[in-house]
Amino acid sequence: MTTLIAAIGENNELGKNNDLIWHLPADLKRFKKVTSGHYIIMGRNTYESIGTPLPNRTTVIITKNKNYTAKGCIVTDSLENAIKIADQDSNAYIIGGAQIYNQAINLVDVLDICEVHQSFDADVYFPKIDTAIWKEINREHFLSDDKNKYDYSFVKYTKRN
């Protein structure tokens, strides 16, 4: 199974200037818990914004640059190859960025979305979640607090039959 995991603003905002546009510790903590022990698939720009392989995960980077290397990571040239590489994992995660999300949204089994209930100035966006294709199966809503500046929800979708 392959899951697309992302945090998005009210208008599908993902980021700006190759960086996150909010700090939500609860989402980061959940992301670490959910993806630990699994393959994570990402584009080169996303990898470079992180700067290092994430601990306790197998990092697969997608790039068209045939000479690209990243110590401790697997590098491949397409999303399809990345999914094949991660196929030995019972639940691989696609973690971004926008180009990869656009390519992957119709190839994955599950969407695991953190909805940040605020609009932001952004330059990259998550693709529209088509409710004719995706069915919401779980939602957990949380109010802002002293550590998390914005209200947010963790929402899970599966493909409709």
TrEMBL record:
Annotated metabolic or biological route of this protein: Cofactor biosynthesis; tetrahydrofolate biosynthesis; 5,6,7,8-tetrahydrofolate from 7,8-dihydrofolate: step 1/1
Keyword hit for Repeat: no
Catalytic function, reaction form: (6S)-5,6,7,8-tetrahydrofolate + NADP(+) = 7,8-dihydrofolate + NADPH + H(+)
SUPFAM superfamilies the UniProt entry points to: Dihydrofolate reductase-like (SSF53597)
GO molecular function, one term: dihydrofolate reductase activity
The protein's Enzyme Commission number: 1.5.1.3
UniProt KW Oxidoreductase keyword: yes
Domain DHFR: 1-159
Keywords for the protein's UniProt record, in alphabetical order: NADP, One-carbon metabolism, Oxidoreductase
Top-rank lineage group of the source organism: Bacteria
PANTHER family (alphabetical): DIHYDROFOLATE REDUCTASE (PTHR48069:SF3)
Entry function: Key enzyme in folate metabolism. Catalyzes an essential reaction for de novo glycine and purine synthesis, and for DNA precursor synthesis.
Similarity comment text for this entry: Belongs to the dihydrofolate reductase family.
Protein name: Dihydrofolate reductase
Organism: Wenyingzhuangia heitensis
Lineage: Bacteria, Pseudomonadati, Bacteroidota, Flavobacteriia, Flavobacteriales
